[in-house]
Design a protein that fits this description.
globular, 2 domains, Arc Repressor Mutant, subunit A, three-stranded mixed β-sheet, three-stranded antiparallel β-sheet, 6 strands
């Protein structure tokens, strides 16, 4: 479903809320706290990303959503903004296969199902995953995290 991108409003204006109750003020605060300047493009993409609760997107799917709105963005701008959000800790990058990257608004530790025939990424509920002991990192290195992706397909 495509949702229109709301315009950036003045700081003193009554802020409309996105889906899930995410105000533009909230997006602006998230960006500022992460050290990112709240530009028009970042605000528009931030509202699309964080206004719908936890979700998984690719640059291409987010670009398609943004195209339906009032803010005109290039695919390169979407890629650059997603990279900046990831570097700032606002998104988690998940490499499913090849060079395809998914972006997850839930940055906490959790695992995923990848539904191959639907090209969809889903969270695996915590209670379905047994805790594994992490191996020791090689000398001079530290573990940054662990990604587990369970590939599934609809039964025929």
């Amino acid at each position: 479903m495509t949702r229109a991108v709301q315009p950036v409003v003045d700081a003193g204006a009554d802020l409309s809320r996105g889906p899930g109750g995410c105000a533009f003020r909230t997006v602006r605060e998230r960006l500022s706290l992460s050290g990112l300047r709240p530009t028009r493009q970042r605000m528009a993409l931030g509202w699309l990303l964080f206004g719908k609760g936890d979700r998984h997107v690719t640059a291409e799917t987010l670009f398609e959503e943004a195209k339906g709105g009032s803010t005109h963005l290039s695919l390169a701008t979407v890629y650059n903004t997603l990279r900046q959000f990831s570097e700032a800790g606002l998104l988690r990058e998940i490499a499913v296969y090849g060079s395809r990257i998914w972006y997850d608004t839930n940055t906490g530790p959790h695992f995923h199902f990848y539904v191959e025939d639907r090209d969809q990424l889903l969270d695996i509920p915590d209670e379905m995953v047994a805790v594994l002991k992490m191996p020791d990192a090689p000398d001079g290195m530290k573990i940054l995290g662990a990604d587990v992706i369970v590939r599934v397909r609809a039964q025929a």
